[in-house]
Amino acid sequence: MCTGFLLFSYCCFLNLKGYSQGRRTDSIIRSQIDPFVQPITETDSLLKQIKPGKHDIHIPAIKRPEKLALPAKPAISFDKVSISNEGLLDQNYFAGGYYYLNNAQISGVATISKMPLNAGFLHQDLFMDGHSFKNTFKVSFDKQAFLDGYRKQLQDQLSIDQLVPKDSLLQSMKLKAEAGIRSRMDSLMSDYKNSLSKNIPALDTLKDYTNNANVNGIFRNLLSAAYAKAIREKEAKLKQLQESNADKAQMADLQKEIDAYYKLVSIYNQYRELQTKYNLSDLQKKLNEETAQRKKQYDQLMSKPSSVKDLAQQNLQLSGFEELLMSIEKLNIGQHTISLSPLSLYSYLTNGVSIEILTKKKRYLFLMAGKETDLNSIQARAIFTSLYNNDHTAVGLRMGKGAIADNHLHFSLFNFHQSKSYSDGTTLEVPQKNTMVMGLSNRFEIGASSAVELELSRSSAVYKDAVYEMDTSTRRSAFHDIISGSNLAQGLAADIKYTGNFREEGLNVMAELAHVASGYYNPGNPFLSRGSNTGTLQVKKVWKKKFTINARTNIRQYHYTTLASSTWWNFSHLIDLGLKLKGGQQISIRYQPTRGIQKSNGQRILQNAADMVTVNLNLQKILGTTIYRNNINTIYNTSRYANFSMLSSKTLTLTSLQSVTLGDNLVYWNNTYTYAIDPSVIAYMNTSFNTEAGISYKAGDNVSLSSSLIYNSITGYVKQVGGRQSVSATIHKKIETSFYIDVKLNIQESSSYYGEPLTANCSIKYSL
After folding, report:
1. How confident is the model at residue 120 (pLDDT cuts 50, 70, 90)?
2. What is the average per-residue pLDDT within 357-382?
3. Are 138 and 119 in contact (CB under 8 A)?
4. What number of CA atoms fall less than 13 Å from residue 431's CA on the CB side?
């Protein structure tokens, strides 16, 4: 039924919207200035108008006489099929004893009618005071692999000049400048040969006067110091002959040679003046910048999925099925996670079907139908929003204009139906609950560097059991409740977010405000805190790619009850200063204060407070093929807790992570020492020391190993020694296996809380 719902909705969507035929991508629009009607004297002013990389560039549709046909592919093909099994043995700190988790997985890639699919099946066995197992599978459309084939085809057929045309103004200006220089130089050289009847072979090879290095090189070789010295000697000899009124024929020859030299110097000086006059060097520099910018734009086009889609649809011969696949952004079947936006679906785990479609005209549609299964035990759920069972089915859609990551306007509607079951370990019957969440999302850009995201959501939950008869008697349905005006404020959530990325200034800004009413309930986002107001501001500034300042502040207000006079406030701030040093080294200083305050009946009660100062230093030294690295971290933390009669804890932690790379081997020594200034009965607030020294090395081409020794101690509790060993091996290029074991032995124990932990992991993977 779920699959039929998705297909029916998608068909309706196509019939209503349709596909556009051959949408042109944006074409390059530039001011068309005909340089041939401009006097040469205006070259300088025109040149100042040209800034490669600063113009708004768009991509033209390349019109070809006939669309290129892609090579035929088999209807079904298989690739990268692998089978793996992994077992994990570890200590259970919550229930005591050990557990063993075994994962058997089959994964692979199949292409069906040019549609690449990633598929996986996972069988999990958990042995812990009994045996339980779970099977999950997933099939997903690999859009990246799908586009890679078209990307390669486009790169083979479309050159940079076709896809990103050259700057016509720059090209025509260069041609005009080159023509002017060439015409003047040809005239000078012709006059030189005719008037002096002198032919220099080196100058005969000089045909391109626009090649600065070539022209300068030839003239500098000709007008050498030796040549200049010989001319000075001939000038002295000519002066002697003129004073003695000697052989006139010899004087004429000397004069001709001297005139040829100075004429050659004059030609070279005029060449340099022509270069300055026509700005040839600046033109060439800008042409080089433009070439690099065009190459960058071409690479960006070929890497961006949306532009690859547009170019493939315009220039390749695609079937109707391939056109359909071009519109599918995501397709998942089985267990998978969905993240759309905070007030619709966000980190939502489902077992079902979801599809995301974006057409040529940027029409967007998302459909989903599936079921979420709650964890078997509430002890295993670290964070939860309800003590009741959360098993439910869900269906919904999101539709509108534009992709989620781009400018868009979307409407969403999701329905969650919670099943009737029993909570683990209790006899309390869990009521059936129907929840509907409706939302509106809008994203728009402000200029080229800023964007605003707005989201508004309303939810409604209706209980179906007799014990909650008051709901069924006053509310007809969740949908009726969500569109009605009753209790409107109690079921609302809103979020507004601003992001600014100012690259030239090296500045990033993010500001966000969120409100979640106490009656708002959205199973699609398990991380929302009901009855809360949140404000966040983050600023990051970089100076000359070396010095960075990152500041963030977060303020949250919680209403845990319906009493307006009782609220909880949480203040969290951060300021981080970073400096990059030579040789890849860097240093940073961070300060993080947090405060938890309860306001009740006009009183302000400090519940908890913490201040943390961190100094981090990354050191690196390269000596030949040997690389030494050391990450040194110093943390001072002070905490106070009202629930423990304002228990105060102050700790100083020193961490050093050292490693030396010797060819294929890595030797490391990691140390962490925490000094508790105010020891307490809580173990993690006492002085502790952890050290591990080991080596990672290879035993042949296909075997990698890592061995280390460990020592741990917590003052007043335990002292441990142990070791870790891992082995990874590849057998016959198809079988990969790994083994890991972590064993610790208590040499001194003051509390039974600490056992002697053992962790082991073994896996094997076979690839077809």
Report:
1. very high
2. 74
3. yes
4. 15
